[in-house]
Task: inverse folding
């Protein structure tokens, strides 16, 4: 994160990143379960570790 940003902006960005990244992990897990039998898709999903 940019150290020249005001503290309140840093806090806002951190909260936003945490909210979005948490969602990414949930979606990735759902996709991995959905495509567990498709090895091509499974390998592709595993390359995107967030």
Result:
């Amino acid at each position: 994160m940019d150290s020249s940003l005001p503290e309140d902006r840093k806090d806002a960005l951190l909260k936003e990143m945490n909210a979005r990244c948490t969602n990414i992990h949930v979606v990735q897990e759902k996709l991995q379960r959905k495509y567990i039998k498709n090895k091509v898709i499974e390998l592709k999903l595993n390359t995107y570790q967030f």
User: Anything to note?
Assistant: The longest helix spans residues 7-34.
